[in-house]
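Q: Hi! First time doing this. I have a protein sequence and I read that you can turn it into a structure. Is that right? Here it is:
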Amino acid sequence: MTASRILSIAALAAFASFGAQASELYGSEIEANFQSTRDRAEVQAEAAQAVAHFKNFEVADAQNAAPSTVSRAAVRADAVTAARAGAIAIGNRS
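A: Yes, that's right. Below is the predicted 3D structure, encoded as structure tokens:
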């Protein structure tokens, strides 16, 4: 590359960086004018109540799980067949 080309690229990069720092983020004045209507304790109590209602799941018991009827080799063979047929998404094509 010639020196003039390098200099022009450097000038363009410097100009672009000055433009990126020209102003504040969009919407910063909206955040500054926000007024809360609820106090902190009320919000924390509502969050604690939501967490208590969220825990409505039960852990599966691994000892009582039904045994598999298909062998590992059969599952592997089915996977190879499906991959070769293009039925399974692979890599960036998915």
